[in-house]
Amino acid sequence: MKQMRYSSHFPLFQSHLDLAHTYWKQLIKPGDQAIDATCGNGQDTLVLCQLILENPKSCVWAIDIQAKGIELTRQHLSRHVEKPMLDRVYYQQGCHSQFPLEIHEESISLIIYNLGYLPGSDKNLTTQTATTLQSLNRALSLLKPGGAISMTCYPGHAEGVKEESAILEFANGLSPSKWSCCHHQWLNRKKSPGLLLIQKSITHHI
Questions:
Q1: What is the helix (H) or strand (E) element at residue 184, kind and residue range?
Q2: Average pLDDT across the chain, whole number
C-alpha cells in the first residue's frame, strides 16, 4: 500500500518508509542476504539491492503472490540495478507464508514486509492475517543472530486492522531475552501505517 508523503516538511523522517529505510541502512551491509516477502512494485526491493548487492556473496529474494507484482519488480529493478547484480536477485511467485526451500535457517540479515494490497491493483486482494502469521513464524527461524524483520502494517481497511492486531499480539509474546520488538505508530495521522521491528539477539541460536 502507498501512503501520502509529506514533502520535505519533516527533515528527520517524513513517513514510515523513511523510518524503515533508516533502520535497514543501519543493519545490513554488502555481503548480506535479504528477503522482500511482499515485493509489490519493487520499491523496497530496490533499496535492499542498493544496500547489499555490490558484494558478490550477497543476494536478495523477492516474493509476491501476484504475477503482476513479480513483473513490476523485475521491471523496476532492471531500470536501476546493473546486470551483474540483477543475477543475484531471485524471484518467487507465491504466498508470503512459503519461503523458497533454498533459503537456510539463520542465513538472512533482514526480512521486510509491506502488507496490504498491491498499489494500483485490486484493493480487495490484500495480505491475510492467517498467512501473515504463518510467514512471520517461519521468518524468525531464517534470521541470523542479530538479523531483523521489518513489517509495515496498514490498519486503513478491515483486514488490515485485524492483521496488525494479531501481529502485535504475536510480537508481544516473544521472549525478551531472545527478541527485541518495537512498534512505531504515527499518532496524529488518521489510520496511519504502523512499523513493527523484530530483531534477533546475537546470542540466540535455534
A1: strand 179-185
A2: 90
